[in-house]
Amino acid sequence: xxxxxxxxxxxxxxxxxxxxxxxxxxxxxxxxxxxxxxxxxxxxxxxxxxxxxxxxxxxxxxxxxxxxxxxxxxxxxxxxxxxxxxxxxxxxxxxxxxxxxxxxxxxxxxxxxxxxxxxxxxxxxxxxxxxxxxxxxxxxxxxxxxxxxxxxxxxxxxxxxxxxxxxxxx
Length: 170
Hints:
The protein is an alpha+beta fold. The chain contains three helices and ten strands. The chain has helices at 18-25, 112-117, 137-149; strands spanning 11-15, 31-34, 47-51, 54-56, 66-68, 95-98, 103-106, 123-124, 134-135, 160-169.
């Protein structure tokens, strides 16, 4: 009798911030823009696994019991989170499938429809410190982009980015 073999599909790890992990889990995010041109090699059908901030479960002895910062709610606090860059594939809970070949685009060419696919909808800050700012999807995306990339590639510089479209694999 032949032994059973587990064939692992080739998959590439991709970093996402906590709010973007939540947007993926809620079904609001199906697109991302990246500065690194290495993402141009992604083709429709390729698999990606989400790297997110994580830690071994603080109250369990099972080494593979994991908690994720984006959705962690527990009476047992996590003292120190492990950065997403150090997340091993075995700890991943979210897998994605590219729905189109990666493409290049100038950042400011993002459409309203694509901004929504990026997980950005209408946003209204009612806090007095932000001056009651009100944004549509593109403005919300611009704020998100600059919160993550303002030092190396701010919105105003209009860099060329790699656009990846995906769906969550369950």
